Amino acid sequence: MKIRGKIAVWFWIIYLGGTAGMLYELFFSRDSLAALLVGFVIFQVVFLPILIRNYVRVEKDVLTVCFGFGKDSVSIEEILEVYSTHDPIASSAASLDRIVIRSRRKEMMCAVQEKERLFGELKRINPKIRFR
């Protein structure tokens, strides 16, 4: 099962505003064309993978979080607790409406569009998971 990641309005505003601002400068300001072009390419290389590759996959007994260039997995049998948070610490999420997945060895954060669907699937595979 694949669940799409959640992308908040503020993230879209940053991306679209940055892209529009750089395109405007590229077309109407010829002062530093090379620097603007390099900046535009770097901006797209950072943001586009986050917008395109942002999902959680549940396969058999493994939960995989894919976000941009990053990918992290955990065995569902090792998951101890799953809960919602709005913690603004750095994580693999383009939204502040996040989910914390805590296992014996690690802790992961992500943001998904269908939280209840993910919780239900995890509970079905491992009924010992504590949800709060």
Distance between the termini: 22 Å
Helix content: 25-40%
Strand content: 25-35%
Radius of gyration based on Cα positions: 18 Å
Q: Numbering strands along the chain, what is their spatial order in the largest sheet?
A: 1-2-3-4
Shape: elongated
| Uncertain residue segments | none
The count of strands amounts to: 8
Structural class: alpha+beta
Assembly state: single chain
Q: What is the string of SSEs from the N terminus onward?
A: EHHEEEEEEHE
The biggest beta sheet is recorded as:
4 strands, antiparallel
Number of helices: 3
Mean pLDDT: 91
Give a brief outline of the structure.
The protein has 132 residues and is an alpha+beta fold. It has three helices and eight strands. The protein is elongated and about 60 Å long.
Report on the structure:
The structure is a single chain. The protein is an alpha+beta fold and 132 residues long. The chain contains three helices and eight strands; from the N terminus they run βααββββββαβ. The strands form two sheets. The protein has a four-stranded antiparallel β-sheet. It has a four-stranded mixed β-sheet with strand order 7-6-5-8, with no helix packed on it. Helix 1 packs antiparallel against helix 2. The longest helix has 20 residues, at 9-28.
What attributes characterize this protein structure?
39% helix, elongated, 132 residues, single chain, four-stranded antiparallel beta sheet, four-stranded mixed beta sheet, alpha+beta, 3 helices
